[in-house]
Amino acid sequence: MKVTTGTxxxxxxxxxxxxxxxxxxxxxxxLDQPLAEGAEVEGVTIDSPDGLNVLRHSTAHVMAQxxxxxxxxxxxxxxPYITDGFYFDFDVAEPFTPEDLKTLEKMMLKIINQNxxxxxxxxxEDEAREAMKNEPYKLELLGKxxxxxxxxxxxNVEVGAGDITIYDNVDRKSGDSVWCDLCRxxxxxxxxxxxxxxxxxxxxxxxxxxxxNNQQLQRIYGTAWPTKDALKAYQxxxxxxxxxxxxxxxxELDLFSFPDExxxxxxxxxxxxxxxxxxxxxxxxxxxxxxxxxxVYTPHITKGHLYEVSGHxxxxxxxxxxxMHIDAEHNEDGTxxxxxxxxxxxxxxxxxxxxxxxxxxxxYRELPLRLFEFGSVYRYEKSGxxxxxxxxxxxxxxxxxxxxxREQMKDELTTTLNxxxxxxxxxxxxxxxxxxxxxxxxxxxxxxxxxEEATRTLAEVAEASGLELVPDPGGAAFYGPKISVQxxxxxxxxxxxxxxxxxxxxxxxxxxxxxxxxxxxxxxxxIHRALxxxxxxxxxxxxxxYAGAFPAWLAPVQVVxxxxxxAFNDYMFDVVDKLKAAGIRAEVDISSDRFPKKIRTAxxxxxxxxxxxxxxxAEAGAVSFRFRDGSQDNGVxxxxxxxxxxxxxxxRTS
Length: 654
Fold this sequence. Notes:
By secondary structure, this protein is α+β, with helices and mostly antiparallel strands. The protein is built from 20 helices and 33 strands. The strands form 9 sheets. It has an 8-stranded mixed β-sheet, with helices on both faces. Helix 2 (49-70) packs across helix 3, helix 8 crosses helix 16 and helix 13 crosses helix 14 (448-464).
């Protein structure tokens, strides 16, 4: 709708109690702000993405007000909204305790029930400095106003482009400001709209502006939702996510571990985890063979010059492990007779695959040439971001590089995307959207025309897939744009899975050529494609997606046979031998545990199929099936039981 001068959002949406902020000509503004004539105005509801962000940022202000009531010496850092919540940083003498968080929640509820108003005021820099004279971090932010975009974590929330503004929490009865903060806003009209649908979740240490060279502060995290039911649903999702944490399940199911002796981000896979990983890789290998890929293998380290040619030392050095300087030769007096060279652990496989392509003359008849490798790569992730299997320093990429002509490019991209989506579905992921990452204007090689052609081609392929396409401006690698397959897991969380990157630049840098049909020498187009991303990360995602209850074809132990009594051990071994002969991973539980305990153990270990045999079963040549959900199918003939299990594994149906 359009409005006349002086009208406010509050007046426009007076009857809409769920509207908490206005979008005015595309910009979010507080409801009490006067509008210009002809402005295009849209009401933003509290349950919309923007409305939730405003709710959470407003709740962060209430929390900070409560903190300074509880600890008057606390100095304010920043307090932005984040995914599903908010945080606020404080400089305090002592860290916050869980008891402090409970006290703060009660104090926040009291503030909320006072129905304080959030009031915006525009101030000069001098006025802002006077208002914030006892807040040293806010004064520092004022000094960073002109560099807010690059000044550090969250600065833009406080002093972005435009006017300097302060938000007052105003007491409705007296009209006095009871608390204020330097902030860009916008905010809710009043605290009452926060209701009681909030919670403080945890506290931790944090560095000012996210820089480890700065002062260490204390950060409190929280969440806020439009209703108590929405808050409860969120808390249940978080609790379920904690139960599914792959690090926890990895230990419980004896799949993998992270020994301190090896170093951060360097996991080891135990025998059961190794079985899952091998099953994943074996199936992927077969699918790649069927799709016309050829397997290659490359070393873990290389001379630094290779990454000078590729550009990685210019653009990716911070993500690489430091160089190893070797091969130097010295005279007896210590002088250098032969200088050494820098070698690097391989951060990606593409430069080495280019060398394979370049190793001999290539003809157009060989294209598209699809090279595939389970290649080990190493990336120097900062210790603060290393996380279980999903963010590691040593990983195995299921990496492919496809070399084709420009005429083949679009069809090959389409084929590759369909192959990727089909294989991910085979592993149990089927809810996707696509993200198109385009050129980072500050970090790219090649010319604009080439980038535009590559980006346009990828966009056309993505749109033709019928999946939702979301832009990711500036998110491309330095050598070309990419499509990322974003997959949702069983909890609705989004994970970046496969990436498909179109690259005209590395073939140029490596001087790759093929002989065309007309006899001329031409550059191939290069498609980078990682399907899992990394085997480690994909296994972490699948562990959480399945909550450790892997489908039978991936499960490390597919069947456990449990005899009702010791007298039936031999009978159960005969059944299990038949399963093993059919290629099934099966074993018999002959531990000294009582029968009910064995059943509980199989359930805890998330075994897909439990076969039980007692006297009647042995006489009838049968077994009883017990499934993960506790249901049971009794008196199944052994041959039928074996076939059921073989079919389930072969068809990946359970």
